[in-house]
Amino acid sequence: IGIQTSFVPNSSSIQLVSQLLARGRNGWNLDAEWAYIAYQPSTKVELQAGRFRFPGFMISQYYDIGVSYPWITPPEELYGFANIPITAVNGLNTVGKIAAPPFDFITQIYIAQTPETDLPLIGQTFVLGEFRIGGIILELIHPNITVRASHHLVPKLTAELVNTLAAATGQTADFIRGLGIEDTTDGEVVFSSLGVDVSWYRIRFLAEWAHRHVFNSIFSSSQNWFATIGYDFGRVFPHFTYSVADAEDVAFFNQDQHTATLGVKISMTDSVAVKFEYAFSELDERDNANGLFDSIPSSFGGPMVEDEINTISAAVNIVF
């Protein structure tokens, strides 16, 4: 549940924006996702300073506004917190807009920093040290198609791994190091994404791909993507999604997983949507594969998990 506000003092070119959000996964603690001041020197440029949503993917800006997309939640293989654990950053953001009807071009450049961040992975919470991040986003918008590309860089990443795994497995820190696991002290992350959203008559097609390259850390590089197709019957929108998380250099954290989802979104009004979904997920066949499940792999002494899972979900999304 969340609340968003914006305030323009005395019809000026300055705007104050805030979004407060409480998620069940965080024990309903209230956090600020947006808390920035924006300045528009012209209709083509906006400068933002403060806390703003991390602009990683197509749906990142409105991830928590469920009525705005067809799924109950965006595909976990790409948008899950085990893949990208941040939703907001603190820093400077520049947004440029060029109108060339019927197209709009949007360019976004940002530089920011995050505080210590919890990374939920294999049933544990790994603490990532505060890190800097920057990126560029290019977007082409047409009434029937949106194309978005982004590139992001984390130049230095730190994470305490040894003690966390030792406590989780009941082993000594020396035993964990003997497996070739060390704390991440000088890591680097580079990731890029490309997404499209196409409407053709009543058919809608969405797809997005991202590549994450991790250096100097046992966290694996990966390719993650999804594709969705649906048909708009007016207030009823049935859809099918196939999504994949594919680790490239599996060592200890094998998140390989793919999911096929059949769902329907029923728009009761413009501000109320009811959704139902059935999903079939399958994990990689290797012994240390845990997919996106929140438990220690069996190779570390954790429980065996089913490699094929059926999930039935329902949700109601409301904005007011």
Note the total helix count. Answer: 3
- What is the count of β-strands? 17
Shape: globular
- Please give the alpha-carbon distance between the first and last residues: 11 Å
What do the pLDDT scores average to? 89
Q: Over all CA atoms, what is the radius of gyration?
A: 21 Å
* Classification by helices and strands: mainly beta
Approximate helicity band: under 10%
- Identify the quaternary structure here: single chain
Low-confidence stretches: none
The major β-sheet equals: 15 strands, antiparallel
Record the strand order, biggest sheet.
1-2-3-4-5-6-9-10-11-12-13-14-15-16-17
Q: Roughly what fraction of the amino acids lie in strands?
A: over 45%
Q: What is the N-to-C order of secondary-structure elements (H for helix, E for strand)?
A: EEEEHEEEEEEHHEEEEEEE
How are the elements arranged and paired?
Elements: E1 2-7, E2 14-22, E3 30-42, E4 45-53, H1 76-79, E5 88-100, E6 103-114, E7 117-121, E8 124-128, E9 131-142, E10 145-159, H2 162-169, H3 173-178, E11 184-200, E12 203-215, E13 222-231, E14 236-247, E15 257-269, E16 272-283, E17 308-318
Antiparallel strand pairs: 1-2, 2-3, 3-4, 4-5, 5-6, 6-9, 7-8, 9-10, 10-11, 11-12, 12-13, 13-14, 14-15, 15-16, 16-17
